[in-house]
Every structure is written in C-alpha cells, then in structure tokens.
C-alpha cells in the first residue's frame, strides 16, 4: 500500500483531471516529421481522442450563420440550373479528386475578394505539418497567392470526402436539444475519428502560424456539408445539410465569410506586422533580439494601465500541439524608447479559464509580499475581446469539459536563459535553490502555491542566479473559490515533472509536497538528459523515457503514470545508481539526498509491529538503557522523519545550501547540448513521435537565443566541512 501525505484542504488545491486533456507543451514542444504515413494517420486519431467532448452542437446552419457571421449589405446571385447540376456532379463523385474541379468551379465566385486555391496536391512544406494539405484553402487576394497549403495565410480550410461514412459527427433532434447538446455527438468509428483529427489539425495549424482568436472551416461528405467554428475551448458544429438541395446555405456562408473584416474572421487585432518601423528601427530590434537579418517582426500590443504598450518581436517560435488548453506561447521582445529599441523583454500569452486569476495578478501579489527570485512584471492583462465562445452553447446544468477561456498577455522585464543552458552543475544547483526559495517564500508570505514546477519555468539570469517564472497555474491558498475553480478539466503541470502521486491518482489533491517533488524531478531529468555519462545512448534514452514519460490509459479513459518514479523513490535509488557521470560532480549525490524523504511518501508505512517495537525501544532509551541512535534505524522513526521533512521546503533548501559549499564542484561541466532526444507534444504524441524527432538545437529559433553571459563560472564558495549526505539524524536520512 502506498503511503501519501496530504496537507489540509485549506492549504491545498485540487489537481486538474489528469486524464481529461493533453498537457500543454510550451517551448519544449518539438516538430514531427511528415513521414511515414502511418504516423500521420495515428496523429489524426490521437487528436480526435484528445478533443472528445469538445465539439458542441449540432447547430442549425441558419442559426450558425446568424450567430457567427455578419450579413453584408450585398447578396449573392443564386446558383443557376447549370451550376446546380455541376455541383450535383461533385456531390455524386466516387472519389475526392473527382469532386475538386466541379466544387471549385461553382463556388469560388462566392468567395469574393479571395483566392479559392486547390491545395489537395500541394502539401504544406514545413516538416512539422506532416505534409498537411486541405483540399481547398481560401487566401486574401493580396500579393502573390501560394499554391501550396500555407497555414500562415489560410483564411479558411475546406475538406472534401466522397461519402457520409467519413462524417465525424451525428445529428439528432434539434427540437429536443433546444439548439444544442452537451452530449458527445462524435461518430466513434476509425474513419470518422481520422477525419475529425484531420480537420482539427488544420485549425491547430492556423492558430499556430497566425495570431487568432478563432477560425472557421467547412467539411463536405458526399452531398452533405458542415460548418465549424473553432476556438481554444473547442468547436461549434452545424448540422449536416444537403449543399445541393440547400445550396443557399453554403453559398451564404462563403459570401458572408469573404465580406467579413479580418477581426470577424478570427484575427487578433492586437498583433500585426510591424509595418510602422523604419528599416533602421527594424534592424536595431533584430540586433537587440539576436535575430537573423530579414526576420519578420510583429507589433504586440499588451494591456498597460488604461491602454496598450507596444512591443516588437518575431512570431512565436514554438508550435502548440493541441487545440485545447492553455496554449502558452512565449517570445523575446523589445519596446521602443523614443525611436530607439530598449532592452530585451519576455512576452507571454496563454488562455486562462474565466474566473481564475490571471498571472498578472499573481505577480503583483508576489511583489507586494516581497517574494525574492521572481521576474519583474512590466505590464499585462486580458486581451480585449479575446475570449472563447464555444462554451456559450453549453447547457448550464450539464457538465462539460468546454470552458470559457480568456487570452491573457503579459511582459516580464527579464529574459535570461533556459535552466538547461547551465554552464556547470554548480550553477544548475544554485538556480534550483533560488527557484525553490521563491516557491517557498510565495507559499509562506503570499499564500500561493505554484503547481507547475518544471525545467521550462526556471530561468537563469546573467549573473547565474535562478528566477522562478510561469505562475499561471498558481492558486491563492486562502481563497476557497479559487480552489473550487481549480478543479477544471485541463491538466495541471508538465508531465515529466509532475509528482508520482498526482500521476498515479488523477484528480488527487495537489499539495506542497507535490511541488517539492517536482524540483527533484527537474534536477533528475536535467542530469539524465544533459550531463555526459558512460551509459550507452539507447540505455539512457530508455531510462529517461520510462522514468519521466511513462503513461497508460486506465479503465475510465484517464491517463495515468508515475509508477516508475514511485518505484525508484521507494527503493532509495533516485536517480538510478547505474547512471554515473563522465566528470564527477556532487550533483548526483545531492539529487539522491533530496529524493530520500520520498521513501516515506511512497514506501510502505510502518506496521503495527514496527510501532510496538519502536515504543519498546523508545522506553529503553528514556530509561537510559540503550543509545538513542538505535531508534534512527527503526521504520517508525525513518517514516516520521521523512514525512516531517516533506512538510516544508526548509530541509531541502538547507541541503542544497550545504552542498553548494563543497569544494569539489567542477568548473565547466555544463550540458552544452542535449545528449539524448527528448520528445515534445502531448503524452500520446510523444509516444508516436519517438523515432521522428528533431533535436532541440534544430528547433531553436533565432528569436529565442540565450542571454549573453560572461564565461566565468560561479565564484568559489568558502571551503566548509562537507556535510554527510547519508546522515540519518535530523540532518539527513539514509537511503535504504
């Protein structure tokens, strides 16, 4: 039986349902190769599974049009008999290629002012897009129109299928559902799931390569069609309609869509090409941000007091691999002081659940409470009109994973470099010490629990100090309403660093001990992934994957994992002793010491016989008949000691502080490049892409170049008598 320790409800918050949706991967997300085809097909199924229950409808097409597309002043000319016959030919075709010509010939005139491009044979050229190719893409008729599928410019994607068997949705009586339903209405067949995953992948790419609040698409099955509106909450789907008999519906959609202003087609008006910058200003911005010459720049408007403040930078460098969730994106930017670019800053945006505090409010409270080692906030807030609408069609009394989300954008007056760019293992340990200090002081002074401790959320400043960032999932422990709202469908945390307890028990109470454990995983994962070792590459890759990526789907459809972490903790062998370093460093012994209290959390609790033995021996100690040290070897004492250390961060901080005083830290043993391929994406996506991954060095955009720092290693600390890491007294615990 696994032993777990929990804080009181007043000092804890519910972890999100770990099985409901994929964990959001931010800057760690990796590209996927478009070959071989089986991987592409599996990815479609994966996306369909990830978004189950996120499709809302069916909505009558007329209602869909009136709710989401403004009616222009002009009206289209109805289809002629000849055009209807041609359209009928498309609807009766036996294959997709037979549908293309007739479909485009009839309908392209209604996309007024746009280019109706057949991209069915011209896939996207970016390898990360799997060679995706919607059958048709609508582009603004401005400048040179691409022949290939270009998700950075596509206004609308249209997918054609020759048969209704491809339809991923099923209709039911709209009168009974009163215009919508919370019941999943996805068709659960192999072919339908792949179609749903396919059209979902198009929407994801549009969101990745453009700055959008929402997007539209059309999917056709034989003689039927559906209209869809996508946002980060999910998708609203119309009922299927015969587009030959009711051609006015499809014609009206295209006509309205092509006459909409960009903002009503889903574009974010607060982000636009930096057209107002002079060539000289643009080049200076690129130099400040370490960008290549000619890199396209954008103007990002960030909420600031009673208006906006403009920052300039490139497009977000990392794609988001899921439609739903927080979809966090970051990019280095700079502002202009007069007409001269100022210093580098860090822009971040994500979709927060309405009613839950935004990260800006968290930073303001942390500053008010004088929490150290956090990034200074420049400005930020919710982007006006940047809210999802899919939730509006949910019945109030019915449960649904679809949520109301708001786009939250902020800028930090700090960039720094990644934790994994540490120059030496001493700097790595020191950065984690500072981050853990920020975390603990936030818990004590501000009554805030971070809940997303990960490698990505610890940065290193130019002096080699650690900075704790990314407080978007943090909760105010004394706010009961926040605790309730935190029990949402999207997951909390980053999979590799989530505690074993939370991974093994979806929905388990997220407490301080879970975040402390995450710091240990940050150090363990980084050491195993970056530090040179005699261990063979295949063995090492397998070790990292089994320890940090393992997962399975339980009988209730929830994703679980963490078993391997628990086993290593229980055995006192974290990280495994067979993993050694090419250049000796105290870092591994430090990690093993920090991991030692978790034997109490994941090991067997003391038995009744153990307790009786301890009471007997304790009585002898009190009488002075035996030495007190005998008690230290007893299961009761070891368990109590371990659980006591897990009740706060104080012991962990003191262990790291003592370790940093050791004289034998190497001067330059940093991990210059990741030594094994780490897979990004959602959990299932990582598994599919294991053999089709690019290394991070190929992914890093020039926009995310590291902060320039001096080449000097951390200053030597005074030599001090080395504290025993395996001490079993109150200063340590033996790893058994």
Overall description:
The protein has 736 residues and is an alpha+beta fold. It has 23 helices and 24 strands. The strands form seven sheets. Strands 2, 3, 4, 5, 6, 7, 8 and 9 form an eight-stranded mixed β-sheet that branches. Strand 6 and strand 7 form a beta hairpin. The longest helix is centred in the middle third of the chain and has 22 residues. The N terminus and C terminus are likely disordered.
Topology:
Blueprint: E1 13-14, H1 37-50, E2 55-59, H2 61-68, H3 81-91, H4 96-107, E3 114-118, E4 136-140, E5 156-161, H5 174-177, H6 190-209, E6 215-221, E7 224-231, E8 234-238, E9 241-242, H7 247-259, E10 271-273, H8 279-288, E11 298-304, E12 307-313, E13 329-337, E14 340-353, H9 359-368, E15 377-387, E16 405-412, E17 417-418, H10 425-446, E18 448-449, E19 458-460, E20 466-468, E21 475-476, H11 480-485, H12 500-504, E22 509-510, H13 512-530, H14 537-548, E23 551-553, E24 559-561, H15 563-571, H16 587-595, H17 598-602, H18 608-622, H19 629-632, H20 635-645, H21 650-659, H22 683-688, H23 696-699
Helix pairs in contact: 1-6, 3-4, 10-13, 10-21, 13-14, 13-16
Features:
globular, single chain, disordered N terminus, alpha+beta, eight-stranded mixed beta sheet, 24 strands, four-stranded antiparallel beta sheet, 736 residues
Largest sheet: 8 strands, mixed
* Helix-and-strand structural type: alpha+beta
How far the N terminus sits from the C terminus, by CA atoms, comes to 18 Å
What number is the mean pLDDT? Answer: 84
Q: Provide the gyration radius in Å.
A: 28 Å
Strand content: 15-25%
Unreliable segments (pLDDT under 50, ≥5 consecutive)? 1-38, 178-182, 486-491, 687-736
User: What is the strand tally?
Assistant: 24
Fraction of residues in helices?
25-40%
Total helical elements: 23
Shape verdict: globular
